[in-house]
């Protein structure tokens, strides 16, 4: 995604491997890092984001979105 959408600097993903059992049935996580707020605002309506939604929504039971600044 960083090569396709201006403002996206990194994408990481993985499977839950916590031994605590507090994942509430969530099994996967994706973390996307943006250069700044403008990068996030560029990504949200971007066709590449829409393409990801088309692929993954049918496969997912539920989604949580959690944004924060560092």
UniProtKB/TrEMBL annotation:
Annotated ranges, domain Stress-response A/B barrel: 1-68
Annotated Gene3D superfamilies: 3.30.70.100
PROSITE patterns: S_R_A_B_BARREL
InterPro entries referenced in this protein's UniProt entry, alphabetically: Dabb, Dimeric_a/b-barrel, HS1/DABB1-like
Region feature Disordered, mapped onto this chain: 1-22
UniProt cross-references to SUPFAM superfamilies, sorted A to Z: Dimeric alpha+beta barrel
SMART domains found in the cross-reference section: Dabb
Subunit relationships: Homodimer.
Name of the protein described by the UniProt record: Stress-response A/B barrel domain-containing protein
